[in-house]
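Assess this:
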Amino acid sequence: QGQHKLAKTFKTVLFNEERDKEFNETLRRNNVGTQTKTKSNKAGRFHYYQCTKCKCCSEILSDKTPHRCHYGTNRKRCETCKLFFVKRHTKHETLHKTVRLNRKMIKITPFTPKTIIAQKYKPIASQKIKTIVRLYKCECGLHFTSTKAIERHSESCSEGAEISKEKCSKCNRLFDTTQLVTHLCKHHSNEKNTTFEVVVWNKSKDSDSKHAVIQCSDCESLFCSKHAFSVHETTCGSNNTFCSTCGLKFHSPLTHQLRHKDCTNLSIEDYDITITVPVKDKMRRVYKCEKCDVYYLSYSGVMYHITDGNHDMSKVAPCPECGLNFMPKTLVKHIAVQHKERKYTRDDLIIEIVPYKADNKVDSVKKTLQIEQQNSPKSAIKEKVKAQSAAGSKANNAARQSPTEVHCSKKTLSAMSWNSYSNNLFKCHICKVHFINRYALRAHFFREKHNVKTAPCPICGYVFSIYTLDRHKYIHHVKKKLKRENFKLKSVGPVTVVDYNSDGEYGQSREVAKARDVEPMEVVDDVEDSVVDSDNGDRSDSELSTGSIDAATLAFNKKMKGQIINVENILYKCGHCTLHFLVEMTVFGHISIVHTQNT
């Protein structure tokens, strides 16, 4: 019984369990200084983990808190054991003082940081993978990123419309300006390793449709593209070979076979052959401007000259061989190609006169006058030129006066938001020209150009600028179906000029008659003093009526005694409110926007 009672006072404690390992490790570190010198205090008593990259030592290596390498001032070196530490440097130095720690008592276990392992074994997703991108190339040389884009382009390309082109700065391929932005963002952003696969777009997707080829009229050789034919024009006459399969004569049979892989199933009936203009006749042509007697070697050159409107004859030089007038750069090419290389004389040249007021939509104006011989009567030539010019101007005026025809491109009409316009017309009181919005009238005032080319609207009869007439017809008559009685006319109101002295006091006022171009008047002496009180120079706005304008002006002129009005001492007052302005055009813009009134 005594043993049984004694056993109740004891308690069994387990040790060296899994849950006690972390606690024992912490207890061992904290009781380092209190331990006595035993055999276990010597070799390998202190255990450190050393990084193989930065050589820093740590007492604990945990997966939860990965090691970060430190360099420079972040790490500190122990002068006794020559080891590097980051956070435990002070604690390590205390061990040298208390325990007399040396290098033999330290056990070092090297480890490799996880950052190096991640760099050695990168996942496949992070590596640069070559991507293959398909581009669609049109026969005109432009590239597109999708089939829908090139289908829309093929419609306008077949009609011969002018398309803005630009080269890609990365891959040197030719793109439409709208497609170039998409191409750069999709294919050249983020340094992508991209490989392009160019697919030549065939407009006729039907297998039964004919293959389009171009035939040279001089050597009768065939070409698969317009670009190949344009290169051939300069070297026409070289040897051409026949295709061994279909029997047609191609300039480059290899290109023909690569493009038409099913050449074995084709015959001459399967090709749509386009015969070009003879190269000899094309090289004989020169194009003349109707207005300024300047010749060009290409139709695009003379059209650019007509569109630019610069008909300065100071830089024109005559050709010493044929006497035709050319620009300096064109003259050098004309002599080298047409006289030295082709041995053409004046009689061999074909001159095409391009009308000055050429309109692409009028067929009659497109016709040109061909002069093949120099010995033709000059009077007959002049009569033909005058008749052609008269026909062109007549057709141009008829097209402009037509009520329904609008000479604007489809792109311009589609971008025009005609719903935002009202039935108001804004009229300039100086040149009597109408505008479709007030901002255009304001810009017209600030430019101070009242001699613009005008034309009346054939439907409502109001006068517009020739550049605004088509827009007015499309917005108000084609879309809104408005008539003359449906419009509300608004114009600029009256403006008053107020002269003031150097002391800042306002003097007399007078109305500006801008429509009559009134200049600063000299003062006359035959004016009575009773018109205006000389002691009181200030006048209220109610006194600035139209009836007292002349009397006030004459009184002010008498006060100046033969002097000219000083332009610097003039303010411009709005006739609707009490605001004053320093510049005349500013008050006109203010009235046209704020105080537009019905006329």
Residues 378-401 form the longest helix (24 residues). The first strand starts at residue 46 and ends at 51. Residues 41-118 form one domain. The CA atoms of residues 542 and 575 lie 11 Å apart.
